[in-house]
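[09:14] KT: can someone run the structure on this one? pasting the chain below
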Amino acid sequence: MVCTGLAAGAAVLGCVLAVIAWQRAGLPYSEDGHYFDGLVNYQQQAVLVYTVLAGAAFVLALGLAWLALKTRRRAP
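[09:31] RB: done, structure tokens below
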């Protein structure tokens, strides 16, 4: 039961990070790789970091879901 909850949490985290990466990738960046709207300065390289973190969260979610399924089948 714990693995299932952790898998769901990791999947939600992966979805949130993927949405952030998608939104940041759509911003208009300057030739230096900066987006500045007067309040916030975003780096274009951060999109790659968010994408990698989202992928890692999805892999963790899949691993935990597999572990939860494997331990559930063993239980009587």
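[09:33] KT: thanks! The chain has a mean pLDDT of 91.
[09:34] RB: yep, looked fine to me
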